[in-house]
Amino acid sequence: MKTSIYYICLLFFLGTASFSQAQAGEKAVSLFPLVKGNYWIYKGKIKWTPEGAGQKVKSKSLTWQMNTHDVMESAKYRIALVTGFPNDVAWYEEGMTPQYSLVVQDDKCIYWNGYENRDNAMEAAKAIEADNQSSMSDLKCIIEFPLTKGKKYGVSDESRPDTMYAWYLKKINKVRLKVKGYKSQGPATRFRLIYRTNPDHIIMEFVPGLGITRYIYEHHGTVAFEDLHLVEYDRKR
Questions:
Q1: Which of 20, 76, 162, 216 could covalently link to 203 via disulfide, CB atoms 3.0 to 4.6 Å apart?
Q2: Res 52 pLDDT > 60
Q3: Each residue of 180-215: b (16+ CB within 10 Å) or e?
Q4: What does the alpha-carbon distance between residue 162 and residue 120 come to, in Å, rounded to a whole number?
Q5: Among 3-17, 41-55, 140-154, where is mean pLDDT lowest?
């Protein structure tokens, strides 16, 4: 009898654990739908300064695509291997191709980091999946939950009383998005996040359930600029 009760309790525990992990995975997907095969297409203006003395600033319209290639799950994290994260074109060079990045999610944050190649990105992804916490040190929390107006996080200079050198949630508003492939029941909630330093700044707009809908980078010295808007989205599930 005691043995039967033990196995019943064990099965209940395993079932509950599996359900909790499934809920965590579903929550992550609902915030930023990083599913293998999903893609986001952005369009906008970029400016850059070619290498070499006396080079003139160039500008053009750009179409840029972010793709989700692989997704891994652990007890703590949802780990996505992507190419074309919008920050890739912050320092654009003619003919450049999308770079490899990891976008990692847990209950608290969406983290990001870029890598030199696929092998390096996958090595980091597998280490995170194996719960090697040192591998998370390279990633930056770019979106921290809960999203509340005036929130400051990711502070790199604790001595500053202002919102410089930290992510700052500047604005929350309702918008009707015109994004091909995105179906909404009504106005979407859009969060505007800003990261400012002396040499540069990033402005990022995020819509839960869709992802990054606008990404601006501007360097305050040598010209390097992008302003990309999401125009198309494809969800595989």
A1: 216
A2: yes
A3: eebeeeeebebbbbbbbeeeeebbbbbbbebbbbbb
A4: 36
A5: 3-17
Cβ 123 vs Cβ 130: under 8 Å: no
Say which residue the tokens 């290498």 belong to: 51
The CATH class of the 2-234 domain is mainly beta
* Residue that the structure tokens 């912050």 belong to: 90
Alpha-carbon Rg of the chain, whole angstroms?
A: 20
Q: Which two tokens stand for residue 64?
A: 């840029």
Distances (CA, A) of 19 to 9, 25, 99, 210, 227: 15, 10, 35, 24, 41
Taking CA atoms, 85 is separated from 3, 19, 65, in Å, by: 53, 31, 8
Cβ neighbourhood burial of 237 (10 Å; 0-12, 13-18, 19+): exposed
Domain ranges of the chain: 2-234
* Cα 124 to Cα 88: distance, rounded to the nearest angstrom: 19
Task: Please check the confidence at residue 40 and state whether its pLDDT lies above 90.
Answer: yes
Judged against a pLDDT cut of 90, whether residue 131 lies above it is answered with no
**By 3-state DSSP, what share of the chain in percent is helix, strand and coil, each rounded to 5?**
25, 40, 35
More confident residue, 104 or 236: 104
Mean of pLDDT values over 29-43: 92
- 15 three-state secondary structure: helix
